[in-house]
Amino acid sequence: MLEDLIKKEVERQNQDLGLIPSENYASPRVLKIMGTPLSNKYAEGYPGKRYYQGMKWVDKIESYAIELAKRVFKVPYANVQPHAGAIANLAVYLAFLKPGDKVMGMSLDAGGHLTHGSKVNITGKWFQSVPYTVNKETEMLDFDEIRKIALKEKPKLIIAGYSAYPRQVDFKEFKEIAREIDAILLADISHIAGLIVGEIHSHPYPYADVITTTTHKTLRGPRGALLMGKEKYAKILDKAIFPGLQGGPLEHVIAAKAAALEEASTKEFKEYAKKIVKLAKAMEEEFLNRGYRLVSGGTDTHLLLIDLRNKGINGKKAAVLLEKNHIIVNANSIPFDPNPPTKPSGIRLGTPMMATRGMEVDDAKYVVELIDRALQGEDVKEEVLNLTKLYPVYEESV
Ligand code: DSN
């Protein structure tokens, strides 16, 4: 029965038009590596300093993954063990803060992340959150305002990183503010890691002291995360991951991260990153032509946030209606959303999965047409299935 359910999910991934900007399709090699007996090995500690015997090969694998992460992200320090982005972020809190210290991240409703100080998360419960938001007019980062809050509140940690922000981030501006108040600057690049590696988004290093990223979004690897940054913080960050927050690392996932980083260092990956943004720009144009309001007016990245209030449908209803037509997006709040998170005003969508499938600009425009028609109540199921059939993701055998 389990095999049957897995088969059905793989079929669904092939058939549905995946547009969730934080998801992607990892390569068959990455997936295969996650299913190897590396999963059996306990490896508490770090290469050369383990608490377990039998580390001859696993040490080599983890060291290789570390070297690759450093090379691909052009940073002097990398830890490849974090099981998830949330843990990588928490390690930064553990390394630099004491409970009650102030942290300044983007508020969740303006596009920040739970682990950036949201009151429902440990980072907002055990630390004092002094959030910033986007400018009401431009719906973009407002560095005058961010600086004002930083100077007033003097947080120990400033976080630049977002889950629903469609624009480029200027890490240098953040660094200048952090320097004025001697705060640690964390760049959480989970959403844009692939764009940074593909050199289509500005790089957070050397501005950020610490960089965290998940490995499964635009980077297109296995589920997991990386913690990177300045060499001088290597020791306290390593300690924060193990033994601070985690026990045994997932060596099968670490090997799969290495495989994804190998892929990310190719010329093809750079083309892939460019394609992600090209498709997003094509969708931007088509949405605007069809009278949609895009938060911040558009996108520079992989992600579009659409305000549906002028379309007479809320984000939740829209996401459900689209799913009935095999189009998978997120219901999402928009900045200063007058509606509750259960019925937000927007939808969030992105192009990393379309680009992985090999879709082109014309397909991206057609996808917007399909979304528009579906939101007007038309049944576009068959057309979506015909489109995805042209761009299969996985063979049956996965
Ligand atoms: N869940 C991720 C996203 O969808 O953006 C953030 O953790």
Describe how the helices and strands are arranged.
Blueprint: H1 2-15, E1 17-18, H2 28-34, E2 45-46, E3 49-50, H3 56-73, E4 77-79, H4 85-96, E5 102-104, H5 122-125, E6 128-129, H6 143-153, E7 157-160, H7 171-181, E8 184-188, H8 193-197, E9 210-214, E10 225-229, H9 234-245, H10 251-264, H11 267-289, E11 293-294, E12 303-307, H12 315-324, E13 327-328, E14 330-332, E15 346-350, H13 352-357, H14 361-375, H15 381-390
Parallel strand pairs: 1-13, 5-6, 5-7, 7-8, 8-9
Antiparallel strand pairs: 2-3, 4-10, 9-10, 11-12, 12-15, 14-15
Helix pairs in contact: 2-10, 3-10, 4-9, 6-7, 11-14
The structure holds D-serine (DSN).
D-serine binds next to loops.
Question: Could you characterize what this model shows?
Answer:
- 43% of the residues lie in helices and 13% in strands.
- It has 15 helices and 15 strands.
- The strands form 4 sheets. Strands 4-10-9-8-7-5-6 form a 7-stranded mixed β-sheet, sandwiched between helices.
- The two termini are 16 Å apart.
- The model has no long low-confidence stretch (mean pLDDT 97).
- The site of D-serine has 4 residues, from loops.
